[in-house]
Design a protein that fits this description.
The protein is built from 34 helices and 19 strands. By secondary structure, the protein is an alpha/beta fold. Helix 15 (412-424) crosses helix 18 (451-466), helix 20 (494-509) packs across helix 25 and helix 22 packs across helix 23 (562-579). The model is unreliable at 712-729 (pLDDT under 50).
Length: 729
Amino acid sequence: MKVEELSVDERIKGIIRERGIEELYPPQAEALKSGVLAGKNLVLAIPTASGKTLVSEITMVNKLLREGGKAVYLVPLKALAEEKYREFKAWEKLGIRVAATTGDYDSTDDWLGRYDIIVATAEKFDSLLRHSPRWVKDVKLVIADEVHLIGSYDRGATLEMILSHMLGKAQILALSATVGNAEELAEWLDAALVVSDWRPVELRKGVFHIGTLFWEDGKINRYPENWESLAVDAVKRGKQALVFVNTRRSAEKEAISLSSKVSRLLTKPEIRGLEELIPQIEDNPTTEKLKRALKDGVAFHHAGLSRAERTLIEDAFREGLIKVITATPTLSAGLNLPAFRVIIRDTKRYAGFGWTDIPVLEIQQMMGRAGRPKYDKVGEAIIVARTEEPKKLMERYIHGKPEKLFSMLANEQAFRSQILALITNFGIEGFRELVSFLGRTFYAHQKGDIAALEYKAKNVVYFLIENEFIDMDMEDRFIALPFGKRTSQLYIDPLTAKKFRDALPKLEENPNPFGVLQLIASTPDMATLTARKRELEDYLDLAYEFEEKLYTNIPYYEDSTFQGFLSQVKTAKVLLDWINEVPETRIYETYNIDPGDMYRILELVDWLMYAFIEIYRLFNPKKEVLRLLSDLHLRLRHGVREELLELVRLPNIGRKRARALYNSGFKTWEDIVRAKPSEILSVEGIGLKVLEGIYHHLGVEDRLKEEKEEKGVGAGKEMSKRKTLDDFF
């Protein structure tokens, strides 16, 4: 189908042609003929790189230009939201405004009312629905990218409830590369279904076993025995490879091992380009290994790296500087990072009680990364047979079908939160109405019977009434109480809110940072660091040392909660070190954690600390306790001791600059105002732009001008590097 034949606005065709696209891929054409352009719901299940995003763009922009309103594009990852936001900005030349929103779950984000395309994570959009911003009623189209995540234990219920809310209110377009029961999903959404195996780049699939590569078509190739030869061979051909392994440490180990073999194949310009990347990476134990591999054209990619480091790796891979990435499966979850050859070293992973097979759906998602449109005519996906028979792996993963998606609405934690939201934020007035809404879910469609869900809902309602989240009147109608409504708006599990409220008497008796940090670490919304067996005794000793500061009893060592409690103590101790300005590198080494883990914990504790303060405000808070909590929140955000709190309230002043100012004698805002600009500019990390921002915040912009008039050109080591005061004026 030619772009010219599309029955859409000519301006849309023009922008598509500007991208060099004159003809649509067959599945794209089928999708756009399905009725989706006329408002029909659609489930589109086609391989990676077959053009799902373009179908969604055409559908969105066509609808917005014809009908107005808004389109919401849901993604599973913040990084993916940023990627899609950049892609969709191309449509702004048609007057369509694009925004992305991923954080702050306690906000209506009224500013989004000014935008037409809104890219959001599912959790963010779910939280927005609970705040009922005025602009939500204008949403005419919801696009669910990676819709197979409806079967994810952690996140599936959120996506399912969003789609249940929007069914009948907005058009729905559900996208995925691999869905085992796409027909069932389409039936639930009353949607047209387009399923295809067509790919723009042919995909060859095979299994490698001790030097022999068995292709699915029966052909055989020979290589050196080690699977690494597959990655090196791809680089020799001028191509790139992705290697999927099952643990972070394996990703790091294999990257360093491969780097010695790949380095010999790099050109001098490539070596120079890689050397320029190294200074952009912060120093810590994890990145030291990354730098070793990176200078030789290889990188590892996992959740232990910071977002900035992962982005740097992804960009350098797209540019062709990095030849091989070794990654955990997180990389297969939607980021546009294809390679000529995908090597899957591991088909098993550790899951709590032992090693289990990775699902077919996930392996096929990984294989789908093989083949780069515009660069490759063929992509290769190769599974390494390490312990299993090659034939078994061929049957299971290459010829096998992806697993069926099953509703995860019955996940107790997610269900509890969603039931509360239905009552307090979505106007569900009674139990019958609640059951009626649940009958619209994918769970109800799939099971054909919601008796089990109804029973679970009844138990949740009892819990909510018993703990004063909600009440019931004489006619059995729900009454949303302030505690319940605020809990739902804060986007926390009701069990988290209950733990917060129950701890308030002890908090007021003994307000202290460690008690608060352990309390937050004990909630179901907080991801804790695991206390390993060899560490248990140390953290038990620490718990007894801090026993008087805790708001909970230390469990008996045979109690099922014992190890979990010590993991909470470990997490609290890491956070205590953070607010006491222990250097990050020492934290990583002491607790054997990666930077990505630290950032994730800090992000979570920032949200939960805010939620704790908001819950406390509902219960006649004591001013001095509220002040301690607010100060602790700021200390957690910046990682500082109490004496730096005044300084970190200034713009662009974090823990390093605040400590440098303090140690140089600038301990208060008043000290900064009294000082000469040149004195402040002599402090490490304080440049002219930072100082300008500080002065603007303090309302003393004229301080720079005064010094210039007194002394002419200002001094300061930072100015000599960047600008003089004359340049500034």
